[in-house]
## 1
Amino acid sequence: MFDLLKTDSTSKARLGRLTTPHGTIDTPVFMPVGTQASVKALDPRELLEMGTRIILGNTYHLSIRPGMDILRAAGGLHRFMNWPLPILTDSGGFQVFSLAKIRKIQAHGVQFRSHLDGSLLFLGPKESMEIQRTIGSDIAMVFDDCPPHGATPREVRAAVERTMRWAAECREQPRAPGQHVFGIVQGGSHAALREECARAIVGLGFDGYAIGGVSVGEPEPEMFLAVEQTEPFLPAGQPRYAMGLGTPAQLVELVARGVDMFDCVLPTRVARNGTAFTTQGAVSIKGGFNKADFRPIEEGCECFACQRFTRAYLRHLLNVNEILGLRMLSVHNSHFYLKLMADIRHSLASETFGEFRRRFIAHYVPTRKVLRERGAGQRPRDPAG
Ligand SMILES: [Zn+2]
């Protein structure tokens, strides 16, 4: 299912191709987040036009609304939302542990109250895999326990043990035809726990491996460290996925650390704050300095928004709360992420990734800095996108 085509000589970056029931995916790849069966503000045609090859859906949210009866009757999520290409589904573990009101953690899952109406629900390895089977995703994720940043070593150890046990249970569940299942490595920023968890999960044998427990509010150096502590224990011949990351500069740096797959809500979330990503960093389109700027968001950008509209017009739309404004910023930002990954793949194919990385980082003002100044810092993965 995964062909490792090339490995970079200056870093751990890899060029690969992933085969799924709904098509092949060139890696490194960015996966736009469609938590609630929609990538916020974008329709499938726009996603296809900007080069999207796989999107994310979410087990927790979809199981609550529209619910499994509707998804079953619709013939799965691809048909329900009219998306023809691959879908990866998150297992719901992250949402249960971060969103829901947990009642009781039990041997085979978690009893919790819905964040929506307080109804009592239960989700565990068996239930999560069954939902993902009904959804019909191309890649299902195991149900894991993702502790928050700042959890004590004892809590992280308990989460790792639960994650390993639940992964084994997920492994035994029936799958949708051709569905791949990825294991998840937890362990916070504890090297020994990361290694232990990675060895156990890899020992069970999955189609790919995710580095979980990142993008949970930890500082950037800690996030990089967690990836560096995990990567050496993942098999080279299978895809690696860093969950919920990251800023454009972080994506470049994570590719250099051997990661192949990414998902992040930032492109569409910051769009709703009036922020656009450019090769020089994130810029506020709402800012007064764009009032009479009749250039596109970024010169040379081939997205629908930059081909047609000026910063001055988009700023106006945002200021008067016209939906078109946030739609066009979502188009540009998502296109920017997808184009960045395409550029990374081209540089890997032509063996110039080292130079690409150096140049990109040199020009890019860290998103963190810009967003902090705007008071909209990167928050942990928000399932509502
Ligand atoms: Zn653009």
## 2
Amino acid sequence: MVRKKFVSGFVPPRESSGPPWWFAFRESNLLVRREADAVTLPCMADLSDLGLVALESHYLGQMGEKGCYAVGLADDALPPPGMSFEGLRQIYGLLDEDLFWVATRAVQIVQWDRTHRFCGCCGLSLRMKATERAKECPQCGLLHFPRLSPAIIVLVERGRELLLARSRHFPPGMYSVIAGFVEPGESLEEAVMREVKEEVGISVKDIKYFGSQPWPFPHSLMIGFTASYAGGEISRDDSEIEDAGWFSGDNLPSLPGKISIARKLIDWFLAKQGNL
Ligand SMILES: [Zn+2]
């Protein structure tokens, strides 16, 4: 996924070219204005014009002419008239797609700022670095960068069938492709082989990169792959997986929403089979 409209930045431009977009969060919920069948973001010189107090503010970069700012609000902040706080999953498809993906950056920066206040080594209060998006400890110098957890996600194919599994955490009836966090010291390909083996007991080969997607729930980076079945019978890991099986395009269970790379992988497979 490459988005050309947004240019990441750390230092705001000296001269602003009009009011910026405000990505203001109460916990992980974004402040939006509700319209008939869409939502929009506040765009004004200062968020205080809405009677809101920013606990912290981070310049994220430029969307065309407009600056983009991530803002954390108090947990008891009230939405101004005509506005509401919404979870990002709830507004996918309602907010402009480019702004939506900037919002996924914004929520992670705000949450990082909130949850990284003290040095993990010596316990002192951290300070924001002036030259890059990081916090540093004034005593021991340890740097704390925004937290990012890489996770692999893989579509395994066997002829005209694909492997789908049901995690215990999924909504009722929904199945998806296999995913899991990368372990320290592991390559992405090793993570793919390990996760598929651990979760459903099969071996894979021909691992190919598919694409990647930020997944801000709360701070993952999903790295997508396709792979082919290489051997073994499906045996579930009971702690994680409730059910798993081989499915063909004309016999599919409920699938993840269009927001996810999981669905992009499945749609890619179905299109290849002529089922989409
Ligand atoms: Zn320290």
